[in-house]
From TrEMBL:
InterPro entries reported in the protein's UniProt record: ComplexI_NDUFA9_subunit (IPR051207), DUF2867 (IPR021295), NAD(P)-bd_dom (IPR016040), NAD(P)-bd_dom_sf (IPR036291)
Species: Raoultella planticola (Klebsiella planticola)
PANTHER family: NADH DEHYDROGENASE [UBIQUINONE] 1 ALPHA SUBCOMPLEX SUBUNIT 9, MITOCHONDRIAL, NADH-UBIQUINONE OXIDOREDUCTASE 39 KDA SUBUNIT-RELATED
Span of domain NAD(P)-binding: 9-148
GO molecular function, one term: protein-containing complex binding
Protein name from the UniProt record: Short chain dehydrogenase
Superkingdom of source: Bacteria
Alphabetized Pfam families for the sequence: DUF2867, NAD_binding_10
Amino acid sequence: MSQRILVLGASGYIGQHLVQALSEQGYPVLAAARHVDRLQKLNLPGVSCHPLDLNQPQGLSALLAQVDTIYYLVHGMGEGGDFIAHERRVAVNVRDALRVTPVRQLIFLSSLQAPEAEQSDHLRARQITADILRESAVPVTELRAGIIIGAGSAAFEVMRDMVYNLPILTPPRWVRSRTTPVALENLLYYLVQLLHHPASAHRVLEAAGPEILSYQQQFTRFMAVSGKHRLLIPIPFPTRWISVWFLNVITSVPPTIARALIQGLKHDLIADDRTLRALIPQTLLSFDEAVRRTLKEEEQLANSSDWGYDAQAFARWRPEYGYYPKQAGCTVSTHASAAALWQVVNQIGGKEGYFFGNILWRIRGAMDLLVGHRLAKGRPDRANLRTGDTVDSWKVIIVEPQKQLTLLFGMKAPGLGRLSFTLSDKGDRRELDVRALVASSRHARAVLLAADDPGASVYLSRYGATHCPAGRTNHRQIGSMCGILSSFSLHHEENHGKMRTKFFSGTVG
């Protein structure tokens, strides 16, 4: 009988690859994460997607009752702040659920460990998580890995962005630390094959590639493979001096994740993979071959469901654009119906223009005319937009009625941008997420961040603090998108006990 599998953290880059690999081998998979929309669009055979927030794991026990094996791929580096407390809380919730509804085994993807006195917060959080999970009655296989060479790996993307976007590399002294980078392809093979080697007790295994390399050697060999030749001059300043602003400019990787990872690079992290290789033999890819395959894969990043498989988006994609687009947005909750919300969203570009700040859009259009870029004007004369429609300079690339409308940005800009409206039905209420995303080079990120001051947020200051729920949006970051992507505003107002959602000039009941 085929094992039934639950993947926790299925929306991360490892999770998405693992779910696809398990699906290809015919395993029934329950894919759980806070956001599973992207996985759902893949329509993978044998995969069911389940929204799940492990901070409030009420639905976890029901999922556990259906499976034999859990993959635990959850981490909290993207949470910022005290992510150790976040990881501890989530691990405790899973441990407690397993005590009530045990499964056959749990496979936890962890990180290589430095001596306890020298651990960074990231490494310490991984160790705490493993210790908590082992307190359940379920045998835990902790698979430790260091640098992973693959599309979406934060460590790889930081290296890639630095090489592609900087003429001179001046990393801190951790560049001389050594590790055993492993190809994502090899790591996924280990993860899948562990299903055939269940443990009866807790165990720790370490995964590695075939070479021990310093980070300086990895940079040098990456440059040789990519053809991007750069000066590399290590400088002796501590990693704690690396600011979030600097990381925001240099790399597309979210700065909280990038900084947490970099803090863990100051020590040698060398895996002993003899036990794992004896258990699961395979041919390991060299560092150079892993980089070559990853760069080839990343050429297809814009040929994806995120960009509606749109030919224009694919043609405009550039290798120097980061894997992770910069984004800003706002989510609001309302009792308005999905049909009413969808009707208003589809009014974009009509007589209401862009609902707010239309003068700014006219100025932005004039800027394009000054550089010889003539813009299309108007929109189709019908209520609902369709894929392929143009709305002024925008192109509609995704239409899922009453669920999602995504437009590709067509004005001159140093990157590739899209604007998405996503509707979610929450039973007695609806949520509308309005999100601008820009994939850009380091130079474009510098422009955006240089504009990240109070003066740059004029466009959205009217609604930033008032109209978006607290803690759900970075108003200054959205403001810095002004002139590159439009952002929309929703205003909540009570009217005789009835919640209404208002786009400044258009109202739905």
